[in-house]
Design goal:
The complex is a heterodimer of chains A (about 240) and B (about 150).
Chain A (H helix, E strand, L loop, with lengths): L5 H13 L4 H14 L4 E6 L12 E4 L3 H9 L7 H7 L5 E4 L10 H12 L4 E8 L5 E8 L6 H21 L12 H11 L4 H8 L3 H14 L5 H10 L5
Antiparallel strand pairs in A: 1-2, 1-5, 3-4, 4-5
Helix pairs in contact in A: 1-2, 1-6, 2-6, 7-9, 7-10, 8-9
Chain B lengths: L13 H7 L3 H8 L5 E7 L4 E4 L1 H7 L10 H6 L6 H14 L3 E9 L2 E14 L2 E12 L13
Antiparallel strand pairs in B: 1-2, 1-5, 3-4, 4-5
Classes of the chains: A alpha+beta (about 240), B alpha+beta (about 150).
């Protein structure tokens, strides 16, 4: 048996990524990248902004089951995720590991986040950000339960990730950059509408008047170039603005 | 009443029904026999979908009488089919047209095929119009023969 060396494995992954033409092939390649570095999951998402409260609407592709991000958001974990905050303030890849956290850093919020991740068998991760050709900031998040990556592995993963971004650019739907066209409040109102709530019910949930809710919805309709709420909901789901 | 359209050219004519003595109710009963078959309505103005209990059953969701939770519905659709399905809704609601589509819905650990057929109609009390349709499982290939007692 011949064991493939590190460079060969990296070269194979890059070759596979450069030949990706479909979404299915892209997901398969993502899984292979994760496996090659003994990681469990990969997620490609838009960079969370300071106003974002939920991660699910930002996810573009992932090897997780959709329930993971719904649960993540249900617990309100994005706002307490320290890696997310560091990522927004740096161009460097960010690594995290539960066991690297000091006793002083183990706040109740951290305990919630750690408990959630452990429940999914995740104890460490790497997050790599990149700015696309269209100026959009994208993030690749790798999660697993291995020891932290050595520097040569991190360098290799960084290089492979550049090709992941490139492969995604080749297969992504040709839509104008819309994700940040909707404000956090507009997204919230569209999400509740998709969940079957009326304007009055949304107003009660968000402590807004019906009039304000309708104004948010009408703004969202205009921004996404739709003609009615049905088209708005379908388009928001298709563009993964809500999930 | 749905407007007549080119896509309905296979539909039975009223003359055929009268000649053969088969009512609308009989046809619905026969078409929906031996499979899970449901009806639904998309209110274009509110963006809400309402459906009969069997639709929730087909999609593997708990039945509610109010609007369906589209986020929960889409979580049941195969991820590769979801973008096309949403594009179908987008075009149907924008252009006020009917459609048919096939897609996969989660069924335990695997997926089953489901078909939706829809038509657009405008009603006096619903000026924006609505899309009404049927949804049913495509299980015919696995069911060679079946009989009813009555």
């Amino acid at each position: 048996m011949t064991l493939m060396n590190f460079q060969d494995r990296q070269s194979l992954l890059i070759t596979e990524l450069s030949s990706v033409r479909t979404r299915g092939a892209f997901i398969a390649a993502l899984k292979r990248v994760a496996a090659a570095f003994s990681l469990h999951h990969v997620t490609l998402l838009r960079m969370p902004g300071p106003d974002d409260r939920d991660l699910a609407p930002l996810v573009l592709e992932t090897t997780y089951a959709p329930q993971f991000f719904r649960d993540f958001d249900r617990h309100g974990l994005l706002s307490i995720c320290p890696t997310s905050h560091r990522l927004q303030a740096s161009l460097l890849p960010q690594t995290w590991a539960l066991k690297a956290v000091t006793e002083d850093e183990k706040t109740p919020e951290w305990q919630t986040l750690a408990g959630f991740m452990i429940g999914y068998g995740i104890t460490m991760g790497i997050v790599i950000a990149m700015t696309g050709l269209d100026g959009e900031r994208l993030v690749l998040r790798y999660d697993g339960e291995r020891d932290c990556l050595q520097m040569d592995e991190l360098n290799a993963l960084n290089m492979v990730s550049t090709h992941v971004f490139e492969a995604y650019a080749a297969i992504r739907p040709r839509e104008p950059a819309l994700p940040h066209a909707l404000s956090a409040r507009e997204l919230e109102v569209v999400r509740w509408t998709a969940q079957g709530k009326t304007s009055a019910e949304i107003g009660q949930i968000l402590s807004l008047s019906d009039h304000t809710v309708n104004a948010y919805l009408n703004n969202a309709i205009k921004k996404l170039d739709c003609v009615n709420r049905t088209q708005l909901v379908a388009k928001a789901i298709r563009l993964k603005l809500i999930a | 009443m749905l407007p007549h359209h080119e896509s309905h050219r296979f539909a039975l004519s009223a003359e055929d029904q009268q000649r053969l003595g088969i009512s609308d109710r009989d046809i619905v009963t026969l078409v929906s026999a031996y499979r899970r078959f449901a009806i639904w309505r998309f209110d274009l103005a509110t963006g809400h979908v309402f459906a009969s209990a069997a639709a929730f059953d087909i999609l593997g969701l708990d039945y509610t009488t109010g609007p369906m939770n589209m986020v929960a519905v889409t979580a049941r659709i195969h991820p590769e089919d979801l973008p096309v399905l949403m594009e179908t809704y987008e075009r149907a609601s924008k252009d006020c047209v009917g459609y048919h589509n096939l897609y996969r819905v989660r069924d335990g650990e695997s997926y089953k095929f489901v078909r939706s057929v829809a038509g657009f109609r405008r009603l006096p009390d619903c000026p924006a119009g609505e899309i009404v349709g049927v949804i049913y499982e495509l299980n015919d290939l696995h069911q060679f023969v079946a009989f009813a007692d009555d």
